Automatic annotation (TrEMBL):
Keywords: Glycoprotein, Leucine-rich repeat, Membrane, Repeat, Signal, Transmembrane, Transmembrane helix. It comes from Beta vulgaris subsp. vulgaris (Beet). SUPFAM superfamilies: L domain-like. Pfam families: LRR_1 (PF00560), LRR_4 (PF12799), LRRNT_2 (PF08263). Its main location: other. This is Leucine-rich repeat-containing N-terminal plant-type domain-containing protein.
Length: 218
């Protein structure tokens, strides 16, 4: 009898696993409403471009399953990664995504976000006028779980928000090849204890990075 029970344990485990795989999508039928609003506000700020990618962002559908460039935490269904302009296949390095629009301050409501990748992926981006324009919303400083922020190769202007000092977990910061200007707030250097990679080239900043801070960067 003991042998009989033991032989059926693997089958029982597989049955439970299959049941859970069916049940989980039913439990997370759609976006968290706060995340969905933030993503749709961002989409609304894109005037043209990325038609294929953003066409999948349909209200009241499961953003964790069907929205291009959106990844969620399997445990709570909250958005943890946003990269809507990246090619679906990392090997498609010759594919360009032309985008024109602005950064929505509602992105600051994606409070579980760990990776925000809005790099304007296109060939010859240095001579192309397209991209995300306008200032960087200070609300991005509310993303306390953020570890990677990539806004490179756009046409963003203005200064780096002082609210970035709240991004204590940030490890990678890419702001290169925009039209950013002004000074870089010293409070950012004092607060970003985890930062290891920093890209600011191709902007119009009026100050240099402290040598003491540079030593810990890669």
């Amino acid at each position: 009898m003991e042998t009989f029970k033991t032989n059926y344990l693997p089958l029982l485990f597989l049955a439970i696993l299959a049941y859970c795989s069916i049940l989980y999508p039913l439990l997370v039928e759609s976006c968290n409403p706060i995340d969905e609003e933030a993503l749709l506000k961002f989409k609304g700020g894109i005037e043209y471009g990325a038609q294929y990618q953003l066409a999948t962002w349909i209200p009241k559908t499961n953003c964790c399953a069907t929205w291009y460039g959106v990844e969620c935490d399997a445990a709570n269904g909250r958005v943890v990664r946003l990269s809507p302009f990246r090619p679906a296949n990392p090997m498609d390095v010759d594919i360009s995504v032309f985008v024109n629009g602005t950064l929505s301050p509602f992105l600051g409501n994606l409070t579980y976000l760990q990776v925000l990748d809005l790099f304007h992926f296109q060939e010859n981006y240095l001579s192309n006028p397209d991209g995300l324009r306008g200032p960087i919303p200070p609300q991005l400083g509310m993303l306390s779980h953020l570890t990677s922020l990539h806004l490179g190769a756009n046409i963003l202007n203005g200064s780096i928000p002082t609210s970035f000092a709240n991004l204590h977990k940030l490890q990678f910061l890419y702001l290169g090849h925009n039209r950013l200007s002004g000074s870089i707030p010293n409070i950012i250097f004092r607060s970003m204890k985890s930062l290891s990679t920093l890209s600011l080239a191709g902007n119009n900043f009026t100050c240099s990075i402290p040598s003491s801070f540079m030593k810990k960067l890669r």
